[in-house]
Amino acid sequence: MISVLVIEDEPAYAEALEVSLGKEGYAVLAAENGRDGLDLVRERLPDIVLLDLMLPGMSGLDVLRRIRDSSSTPVIVVSAKDTEADVVAALELGADDYLTKPYSIRELVARIRVALRKTTVENGEVIAVGSAVLDAGRYQLRVDDEAFDLPRKEFEVLKMLMARSGRVVSREDLLGEIWGFGWSDSKTLDQHIRRLRRKLEKVEAAPRIETIRGVGYRIVA
């Protein structure tokens, strides 16, 4: 599940975001001030941060500056401050986007998706098939708003299939590339394919793994 850190000093606003984003399938963390927010960035490694600018003790811009000192985690500034100077300052400090209050949850979710896709692609460790994105940096599969952490071998099987999307990959090639040529226990591959299918079937928009009898497997969007 994709995690969103909300750094917001108004409890009612933060709670409303937690409920709304939770309904959209996100796991939400919350901090009421910048210092607690920075601690959560370091300790919990959220996938994305929603950052208010008007925070007690440490300004949102200072929080953003410190996040960028050590992390490339995408940050969307969410603020009632709407002057051009505010927007430019946040973007120049490394914010990925700027959204002015009030806004709709649909717009916020759309911007979250764009920021996550952009960050994954820029990392240069991504394979995409349809709405599925395989993130090599995190050993993670993302489909729309769902995220699945994959064990190493499952990741390698899926990576090989997605890299050859639409083409058949033989069982021999999968076993040889991932387990080493000479590996003869094909049941191991069957188990990994079965587990991957169960994960993919949880999301309607996910690609599917087809069995080509007597040959191997093919992934299709």
Overview of the molecule:
The chain is built from 8 helices and 12 strands. With 221 residues, it is of the alpha/beta class. The chain has 2 domains: 3-116, Rossmann fold (3-Layer(aba) Sandwich); 126-220, Arc Repressor Mutant, subunit A, CATH 1.10.10.10. The strands form 3 sheets. It has a 5-stranded parallel sheet with strand order 2-1-3-4-5, sandwiched between helices. The protein has a 4-stranded antiparallel sheet with strand order 6-7-8-9, sandwiched between helices. The chain has a 3-stranded antiparallel sheet with strand order 10-12-11. Helix 2 packs parallel to helix 3 (60-70) and helix 6 (152-163) packs across helix 8 (186-200). The mean pLDDT is 88.
Summarize the structure.
With 221 residues, the chain is of the alpha/beta class. It is built from 8 helices and 12 strands. Helix 2 runs parallel beside helix 3 and helix 6 crosses helix 8.
The strand count comes to: 12
Radius of gyration: 20 Å
**Given the C-alpha coordinates, what overall shape results?**
elongated
Full CATH superfamily name of the largest domain: Response regulator
CATH C-level of the largest domain: Alpha Beta
Q: Please report the number of helical segments.
A: 8
Class derived from helix and strand content:
alpha/beta
Number of domains: 2
Instruction: Give the terminus-to-terminus CA distance.
Output: 21 Å
Helix content: 40-55%
Could you tell me the mean pLDDT? 88
What percentage of the residues does DSSP assign to strands (E)?
15-25%
CATH architectural category of the largest domain: 3-Layer(aba) Sandwich
Instruction: Record the strand order, biggest sheet.
Output: 2-1-3-4-5
- Looking at the structure, the CATH topology of the largest domain is Rossmann fold
| Largest beta-sheet characterization | 5 strands, parallel
H/E order of the elements?
Answer: EHEHEHEHEHEEEEHEHHEE
Extract low-pLDDT stretches.
none
